[in-house]
């Protein structure tokens, strides 16, 4: 069973000619089949955690370990992490002009699966997955994220999640900027992947809204660059009612 | 992509919109246009039109010391049925009709060729196969002149391939009759040492459509002047270009669109990728909207993707408007480095860095190549781009 283990992770970022520590000792274990929600106020370091796990060059790991099934993730390049089974659904997916969605998906699937998917079954697989996400087939011929609406970008991220079948999926504020219909469609996509039981999900969010559609097994409150409280789904209800104030005022990073 | 994210040292993106009574486009050339090389002083390198060009690498084309060797280039022309090809003397009335040389090397070419080639597509003839002109450098010095003339309502695609090694100064005239449609793809796929300088003049008839693709991969120094003027209202010009400038190469494209009659359109998009020490691309985009050219609609754009340190881009769009009664006029220029966020996004989907880079550069050019509309030519160019990328990135 695939396991992502984060131990005492410290991360800094360079900003305004100064080095700033964003993550200050994160401990978290995510197992295949589990869903963890990480909730926290703006500026608490949630997205830094997501991007650090994916290997974004902007972030410097200054301490701690991250392993996937015992393999040292921090030693891997960005593409190696993805091929090892890590997937990051981004909050702000990047436009890639001139590269069509269909070409991108196939190139990516070929890299992840280690061989080019058979064309006939692949076309069918993409088409059906797109249909389930209520995506127009013409979408496949557009350039990656170019001119996509906020909702289209998030559907495109979840389309990749469904096609690439990672071991660990990190969803960075996938719910932000979505209307209720889009949120439902996107959540259904995530749930289809979860129902296979083969993915561990790390759901990063500011709001409890998405948790009505995606039921977490664990909820962690993130503040000041570390997890300050962990619990079950009921912790989300508490946050819904009381907000983050209790966590930001007791010594965390103020948003 | 990476718009002005980082502009390498030396890059100029100084766009200028001038509303002036006197044309600076005309006056910033050091001499008026002429067919006679003697009317142009030998450039010394500080003239506006020569300041980006390394004169010492022109191998004497600019100062009269490059003497034709007789074994400069071999030209082969393949034509579909209905097209005539003639080899004519210097006195043929069709020569020089589309435009007058604007600098000394273009005038040198016009003053030096012995025989010219005239390809004619008769009126109302619609070709289904391209006309293919192959110019192969045999290692010598050559001067040439090529005319492609389309009669009224004729339609044709012309592909001009330049390969091998040569020191070549040659001009091309495209003459489009009323309602004619011409697509030209000129590929500069020279060997590393070749020097190629020339002026491409298009004279666009009433309601005619001219579409040009200038594709420059090779050569030590390539300097081309694609120029457009209109013979009647309703004409349309699309000027597309792509260049892949490697270490040590100088590739210069100097466009001019002269909106001299009313209700014409022009759209210019040139894109380049540069890599390696001493790679130098120059793009000059001059658009002149004369006082008579009411109803003009024009746009020009240059994009450069700098893949490594040590490369330099000079990009100078220049729009000059002498009448306010126009539909639209715009220009844009951006020079950026490879976008790390794009790279991260693709790599985060398992795609290795080199493949990701290739995908992005290919995509950068593919947008433009897709505009050609001739499948086998598009495929060939994409294959060529892939080969350039395989060899380098």
Compose a concise summary of this entry.
The complex is a heterodimer of chains A (255) and B (393). Chain A has 255 residues and is α/β, with parallel strands linked by helices.
Commentary on this structure:
The complex is a heterodimer of chains A (255) and B (393). Chain A has 255 residues and is an alpha/beta fold. Chain A has a single domain, classed as P-loop containing nucleotide triphosphate hydrolases (Rossmann fold), CATH 3.40.50. In chain A, 34% of the residues lie in helices and 31% in strands. Chain A has helices at residues 46-54, 78-84, 101-113, 119-132, 150-164, 180-195, 234-242, 245-248, and strands at 3-15, 18-31, 35-39, 59-68, 71-72, 86-89, 96-100, 143-144, 168-172, 200-205, 218-223, 226-231. In chain A, the strands form 3 sheets. Chain A has a 6-stranded mixed sheet with strand order 6-9-10-3-11-12, sandwiched between helices. A 4-stranded antiparallel sheet of chain A has the order 2-1-4-5. In chain A, a hairpin with a 2-residue loop joins strand 11 (218-223) and strand 12 (226-231). The termini of chain A are far apart. By secondary structure, chain B is mainly beta. Chain B has 2 domains: 16-340, no CATH class; 341-393, no CATH class. Helix content of chain B is 14%, strand content 43%. Chain B has a 17-stranded mixed sheet that branches. The model of chain B is unreliable at 1-22 (pLDDT under 50). Classes of the chains: A alpha/beta (255), B mainly beta (393). The A-B interface holds A 54-57, 77-79, 81-83, 87-88, 90, 93-99, 103-104, 107-108, 111-112, 143-144, 160, 164 and B 1, 339-342, 344-353, 355-356, 359-360, 362-367.
């Amino acid at each position: 069973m695939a396991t992502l283990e984060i131990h005492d992770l410290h991360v800094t970022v360079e900003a305004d000619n100064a080095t700033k520590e964003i993550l200050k000792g994160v401990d978290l274990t995510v197992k295949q089949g589990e869903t963890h929600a990480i909730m926290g106020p703006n500026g608490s370091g949630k997205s830094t955690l997501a991007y650090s796990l994916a290997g974004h060059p902007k972030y410097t790991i200054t301490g701690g370990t991250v392993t996937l099934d015992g393999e040292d993730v921090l030693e891997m390049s960005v593409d190696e992490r993805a091929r090892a089974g890590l997937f990051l659904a981004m909050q702000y997916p990047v436009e890639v002009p001139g590269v069509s969605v269909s070409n991108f998906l196939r190139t990516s699937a070929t890299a992840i699966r280690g061989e080019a998917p058979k064309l006939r079954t692949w076309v069918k697989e993409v088409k059906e997955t797109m249909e389930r996400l209520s995506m127009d087939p013409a979408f496949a011929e557009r350039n990656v994220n170019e001119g996509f609406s906020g909702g289209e970008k998030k559907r495109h991220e979840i389309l990749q999640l469904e096609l690439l079948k990672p071991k660990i999926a990190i969803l960075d504020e996938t719910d932000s900027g979505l209307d209720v219909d889009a949120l439902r469609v996107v959540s259904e996509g995530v749930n289809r992947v979860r129902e296979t039981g083969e993915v561990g999900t790390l759901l990063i969010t500011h709001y409890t809204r998405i948790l009505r559609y995606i039921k977490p097994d664990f909820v962690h409150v993130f503040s000041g660059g570390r997890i300050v409280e962990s619990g079950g789904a009921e912790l989300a209800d508490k946050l819904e009612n009381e907000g983050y104030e209790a966590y930001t005022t007791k010594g965390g990073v103020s948003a | 992509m990476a718009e002005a994210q980082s502009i390498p040292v030396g890059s100029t993106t100084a766009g200028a919109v001038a509303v002036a009574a006197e044309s600076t486009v005309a006056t910033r050339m050091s001499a008026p246009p002429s067919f006679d090389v003697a009317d142009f002083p030998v450039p010394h390198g500080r003239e506006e039109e020569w300041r980006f060009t390394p004169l010492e690498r022109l191998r004497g084309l600019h100062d009269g010391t490059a003497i034709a060797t007789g074994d400069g280039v071999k030209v082969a022309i393949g034509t579909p049925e209905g097209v005539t090809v003639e080899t004519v003397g210097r006195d043929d009335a069709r020569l020089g009709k589309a435009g007058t040389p604007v600098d000394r090397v273009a005038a040198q070419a016009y003053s030096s060729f012995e025989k010219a080639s005239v390809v004619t597509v008769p009126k109302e003839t619609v070709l289904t196969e391209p006309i293919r002109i192959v110019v192969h450098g045999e290692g010598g010095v050559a001067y040439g002149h090529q005319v492609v003339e389309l009669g009224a309502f004729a339609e044709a695609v012309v592909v001009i391939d330049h390969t091998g090694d040569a020191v070549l100064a040659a001009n091309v005239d495209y003459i489009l009759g009323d309602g004619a449609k011409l697509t030209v793809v000129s590929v500069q796929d020279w060997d590393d040492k070749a020097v190629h300088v020339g002026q491409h003049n298009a004279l666009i008839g009433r309601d005619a459509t001219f579409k040009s693709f200038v594709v420059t991969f090779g050569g030590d120094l390539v300097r081309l002047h694609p120029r457009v003027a209109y013979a009647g209202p309703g004409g349309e010009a699309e000027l597309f270009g792509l260049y892949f400038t490697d270490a040590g190469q100088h590739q210069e494209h100097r466009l001019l669109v002269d909106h001299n009659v009313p209700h014409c359109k022009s759209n210019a998009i040139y894109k380049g990728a540069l890599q390696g020490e001493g790679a130098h691309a120059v793009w000059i985009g001059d658009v002149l909207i004369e006082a008579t050219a009411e109803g003009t609609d024009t746009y020009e754009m240059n994009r450069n993707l700098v893949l490594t340190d040590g490369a330099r881009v000079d990009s100078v769009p220049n729009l000059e408007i002498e009448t306010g009664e126009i539909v639209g006029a715009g220009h844009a220029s951006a020079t950026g480095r490879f976008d790390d966020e794009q790279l991260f996004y693709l790599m985060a989907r398992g795609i290795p860095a080199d493949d990701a880079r290739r995908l992005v550069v290919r995509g950068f050019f593919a947008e433009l190549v897709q505009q050609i509309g001739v499948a086998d030519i598009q495929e060939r160019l994409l294959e060529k781009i892939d080969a350039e990328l395989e060899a380098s990135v």
